[in-house]
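Intended use. Records like the one below are meant for learning the mapping from a protein sequence to its folded structure. Do not use them to infer anything beyond what is encoded.
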Amino acid sequence: MEKFNFRFVDDPKNQNVGLTFEEIDALKEKMGLRFPKAYIDYLLNAGKNSNLFNVETNSNELQKIQKELRLELNLLNVFQNEEILCIKKNFEAYYFFNLSENKGKPTLYILSEICINENWNAFQKRITKGEGEDFVTFINRLAEREYGITITQHLKNIPLYIIALPIAIVFIVVAGVMILIEKIWGEN
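Structure written out for the chain above:
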């Protein structure tokens, strides 16, 4: 099984619990859909419980939200001939993959109602892509938001820190010189 670079965080108070291969196969069979490889990897690690992003794994509920999403997409005239997999419904937001794209790391789409005016009295259903577009990046950004940046990520940012330090020093020196000039001109 191919492993993807998900950032699974070991949180003793809220553990990730995965599904077995058998449970995933039963779910795929009941749904009559193939699952993207990255999603299978996610289910193996956090299908029953995730400390970041719980997905629907009850086949009856999954079929129900799959049908609801298909109706919504048909009303919007989008993804009409596409094979989709709805993985979660949260309030009025649907999280889904377009299986017709046939990607190992699928794009995560979100269908939700978005306010379209300043008075908060007009809404429109829109489809957006999850952060970073693919599912792995979406999950990793949730982990970063919830649990912070990792040491590895800080190490990857060292070149950025090295570039930013001289710029910051120059900015501080220029600001100090400007303040000094202003004080000198102010006294005269």
